[in-house]
Specification:
- By secondary structure, the chain is mostly helical.
- The chain has 2 domains: 32 residues, no CATH class; 101 residues.
- It is 80% helix and 0% strand.
- The radius of gyration is 20 Å and the shape is elongated.
Length: 145
C-alpha cells in the first residue's frame, strides 16, 4: 500500500515542480497538458496490478495461496504489466513525435518502466503457471481421495 500511496503522491506533486508549470495554475497543470492526462490514465494498470498483488498477499495470509483466485490475480498482474509496456511505448512515441528539445530523460525513464514491467510480467506468468499446476494437482488429489 505504501508503494501505491507514494506513487500517487509523486504523480500529484511532481507536475508543480516542472519548469513550464512553475507559475501555472492548478487548472493549467492538470487540464491543459495532454501528456499529463495520458500519464495519469496510463497509470491505471499499475494501480490495478498493485491491488491484485495485495490480494495475492492476502490469500497467502489466509493459507489460500494455492487457489484459483491466486491464479486469476496473477493473470491480471501479468496483463496489467503487458498493458503498461504498451502504454509506455505509446507515450514514448508521443514524446518522440512531439516538439521537445529534451527527450533523452523521458525516453530513458520509459525504457526503465518497460523493462521493470517486462520483469513483472515474466515473473507473474511463471508464478501463474506454477500455481495453476498446483491447483490442478490439488483438485486431482481431492477427486481421487
Amino acid at each position: 500500500m505504501l508503494i501505491g500511496v507514494g506513487a500517487l503522491a509523486l504523480m500529484l506533486w511532481e507536475p508543480h515542480l516542472e519548469g513550464r508549470n512553475a507559475h501555472a495554475t492548478v487548472f493549467e497543470i492538470y487540464f491543459k497538458d495532454p501528456f499529463l492526462a495520458y500519464a495519469y490514465s496510463a497509470s491505471i494498470p499499475f494501480f490495478v496490478a498493485l491491488y491484485q498483488a495485495f490480494k495475492v498477499l492476502g490469500y497467502s495470509g489466509e493459507h489460500a495461496a494455492v487457489s484459483q483466485a491466486s491464479v486469476k490475480a496473477l493473470r491480471t498482474i501479468r496483463f496489467c504489466a503487458v498493458a503498461t509496456i504498451g502504454l509506455v511505448a505509446i507515450g514514448e512515441l508521443f514524446m518522440l513525435l512531439g516538439d521537445s528539445d529534451d527527450r533523452a530523460g523521458g525516453v530513458f525513464i520509459g525504457i526503465l518502466i518497460a523493462f521493470g514491467s517486462a520483469v513483472v510480467a515474466a515473473a507473474a506468468g511463471r508464478f501463474e503457471r506454477i500455481l495453476q499446476k498446483a491447483v490442478e494437482r490439488g483438485s486431482e488429489n481431492d477427486s481421487t481421495g
